[in-house]
Amino acid sequence: xxxxxxxxxxxxxxxxxxxxxxxxxxxxxxxxxxxxxxxxxxxxxxxxxxxxxxxxxxxxxxxxxxxxxxxxxxxxxxxxxxxxxxxxxxxxxxxxxxxxxxxxxxxxxxxxxxxxxxxxxxxxxxxxxxxxxxxxxxxxxxxxxxxxxxxxxxxxxxxxxxxxxxxxxxxxxxxxxxxxxxxxxxxxxxxxxxxxxxxxxxxxxxx
Length: 207
Fold this sequence. Notes:
Oligomer: single chain
Mean pLDDT: 90
CATH architecture: 3-Layer(aba) Sandwich
């Protein structure tokens, strides 16, 4: 890769990291996770209240974001989803992009995206009005949250400690989500429960 391209990616990563760092999330670790109810791509209602007793991962998604492409194109996120859903974790992908904005998708678009990337989520929810995204204070894609079986937020932040769009950075990265889930399911205290999310800013609908 040419030096200019590397510099661009590095600059983009730093800019987005700083943008997310200056924002306060509405959902706070240690407090009840904001309630929500929405229909999945098959029209089935998914409500957080109905998932009590389960560990729930919420992943904010934008299929065109280079940071999301990094983790899906490499197979990193689908593998992580498959690993943990096989252990009983509920993994929900949420798209909060507004109509006409970057990342917006229809149910058909979402189904095609899932098939193309071999996504292994439990459900994908479309949130075009941004109600769920605003309730959690989701800022970037991917912005990750983990809710414990008691309905309390246990993790809020980035997927890992490499805030770039470069797939070569996946190897050797500390995957905060994998680490937190490992500790949570083992009955241990999560060692890193809050980090700074990185990625593409979510294009919400105007309030």
